[in-house]
Design brief:
The chain is of the alpha/beta class. The protein has 10 helices and 8 strands. Strand 4 (about 105), helix 6 (about 110-115) and strand 5 (about 125-130) form a beta-alpha-beta unit. Bound molecules: pyridoxal-5'-phosphate.
């Protein structure tokens, strides 16, 4: 991904903001219900700082090492910024991730929960996690069914200093989003996440140990559909950082 200048990043954010507001109006939703996250994988720290200056408070990274190196000290400058891990997390990176990130959105297996649990004890604030659900056929990451999701939910709720905050998914990717069939599949993916959220809420009502409020869904090419379907966090990379 090429780093572009400040004017473009700021202008890109303004354009997306306009689209988000339009989508909110037509979906009858409030803009404040939705967080715009900047997905800053492969973006140098200077680009991230510029996006933060333009009002982005959440950043998503997909590689632990890259994030920890380029964002070392970043929080001192931008104390209100939250850093989320959104990419597939290998077990041998869990130790750094558990200390460095505010939230790990890509929790997709029980083994990973157990590994993270080993390293969260000294955190000031609990490590937030989202459980990732696989909702598209080609997708490789995420819990594959509701049963597995329930087991993970039970586990994260019972670990000191880990706090579930919701669910995440990636819809299948289509180049051509004007095709009604693509839209249908993407929509179905988001609906599965909403359904899982409702079921989880029944089994494990939100409380002090955690909740299922966050629905992290919607990327550059499908975020308007995600807003219609109830997203509370959009993960936008290319539309912000690419020309
Ligand atoms: C890269 C990435 C995004 C952002 O994708 P864009 O299409 O560039 O907006 C969102 N979520 C995850 C998990 C990603 O890996």
């Amino acid at each position: 991904m090429h780093y572009i200048n400040k004017v473009s990043i700021t202008a890109n954010i303004a354009k997306i903001e306009e689209r988000i507001q339009k989508a909110c109006v037509s979906a009858g939703r409030k803009r404040e219900e939705i967080i715009l996250m900047g997905v800053s994988k492969f973006v140098p720290a200077a680009g991230i700082e510029e996006a933060a200056g333009a009002g982005i408070c959440y950043f998503g990274e997909s590689r632990v090492q890259e994030a920890a190196e380029k964002l070392d000290g970043f929080k001192d400058k931008f104390s209100n910024v939250k850093l989320h891990m959104i990419g597939s997390l290998q077990r041998n990176k869990a130790k750094i991730a558990a200390v460095f990130f505010d939230n790990i959105q890509s929790v997709d297996r029980l083994e990973l929960v157990a590994e993270l649990a080993k390293y969260v004890q000294n955190r000031e604030k609990p490590l937030e996690v989202l459980l990732e659900l696989r909702t598209g056929e080609e997708s490789k990451s995420g819990f594959t069914d509701f049963n597995a999701l329930c087991k993970a939910a039970e586990k994260v709720l019972n670990i000191q200093n880990i706090k579930p905050a919701g669910l995440m998914t990636m819809a299948p990717f289509f180049n051509d989003m004007s095709n009604p069939d693509s839209i249908k599949l993407v929509r179905s993916s988001f609906r599965q996440l909403v359904k899982a959220q409702k079921e989880l809420e029944k089994h494990f009502p939100s409380g002090e140990n955690g909740n299922w409020h966050c629905l992290s869904m919607g990327m550059s090419n499908d975020f308007e559909i995600a807003i219609e379907e109830g997203s509370t966090m959009l993960r936008i990379g290319s539309l912000i950082f690419k020309d």
